[in-house]
Design goal:
12 strands, FAD-bd, 255 residues, three-stranded antiparallel beta sheet, alpha+beta, binds flavin-adenine dinucleotide, FAD-binding domain-containing protein
């Protein structure tokens, strides 16, 4: 889409990542040829592959994409919620939705594309079949912290828990903690506390610099910028090392 330069202009990027696996640190980058091969396998196209790691906030990326779509001729309507599909027999011929000021609007089209994400209203309404379903195996919590700079992205794993600290927009770091689904109920009892305990357990050194204990301490601008959002990963990444190493360490730092 030609928006990479715009993204990189406002997003920190690095060419290396640090991975610490049960105390064993590795720093490096994926060779560009391997990245190209991966993209060829996955998308049949390796154009535009660069060796830069960047974590972009959705509100930054979405804004850039929306502006690029408008520039390419699309009519963009934000704050518009699709509520119904308009049908003609067994064909979908349009949508009905609500504008930001509460007006109901109907639009008709030759093709209606349901690009509405994981919990797609379109897919649900049409009862579309699911494919390649994976078991839910991982929970994850993340939030954004400012006031420190750890350099390139870091991924740590200890036993069944893992964490990542990744620099992102607005001079903040995305701090993510994940673990096996069967621990999520216990974790949810005290999210900020268990988030901190998990970080202390998995990556004590970066935890000391990244996450506050309770309210921001004096002398530190690190902060809990909003309640951590939760998500479940169902893809292969979510089911990888943290789960496979289950038998080796079952320690729960909050237990
Ligand atoms: C914490 C986290 C980290 C991730 N990290 C990565 C990563 O590093 N790399 C990666 O490749 N992927 C990552 N992903 C996955 C990635 O975000 C998704 O795969 C991707 O966003 C899916 O794109 P999409 O366009 O299908 O859906 P979405 O990005 O979810 O977009 C759907 C859009 O439709 C809108 N919408 C939904 N319903 C309606 C409605 N009724 N009316 C109007 N609009 C509607 C939503 O508001 C949204 O804007 C991550 C996901 C999470 C949660």
């Amino acid at each position: 889409m030609g928006v990479l330069d715009q993204v990189l202009a406002v997003t920190p990027t690095h060419t290396t990542i640090k991975v610490v696996n049960d105390g064993i640190p590795l720093t490096g980058s994926v060779p560009p040829e391997l990245l190209r091969e991966y993209f060829r396998d996955l998308h049949g196209d390796d154009s535009g592959v660069v060796q830069s790691y960047a974590s972009v906030r959705r509100r930054v990326l979405d804004q850039i994409l929306v502006e690029a779509a408008a520039k390419a001729g699309a009519e963009v309507r934000t704050n518009f919620a699709v509520r119904e599909l308009v049908r003609d027999g067994d064909r979908v011929v349009g949508i009905r939705g609500r504008t930001a000021d509460g007006q109901t609007v109907e639009e008709r089209a030759r093709i209606v594309i349901g690009a509405d994400g994981r919990n797609s209203f379109v897919a649900r309404t049409l009862d579309l079949p699911k494919y390649d379903e994976r078991p839910k195996c991982t929970f994850a919590y993340w939030s954004y912290f400012s006031g420190f700079d750890l350099g390139p992205a870091q991924l740590h794993r200890r036993g069944r828990l893992a964490s990542a600290v990744v620099p992102t927009n607005f001079e903040q770091n995305m701090v993510l903690v994940w673990g096996p689904s069967e621990w999520s109920r216990e974790f949810r009892r005290d999210v900020p506390g268990n988030f901190q305990r998990a970080l202390d357990f998995v990556a004590p050194r970066s935890a000391r610099r990244s996450a506050p204990r309770g309210p921001a301490r004096s002398g530190s601008t690190a902060r809990w910028t909003r309640p951590a959002s939760s998500g479940r990963c169902t893809g292969p990444a979510g089911c990888s090392s943290a789960t496979r190493s289950a038998s080796r360490t079952s320690a729960r730092p909050w237990a």
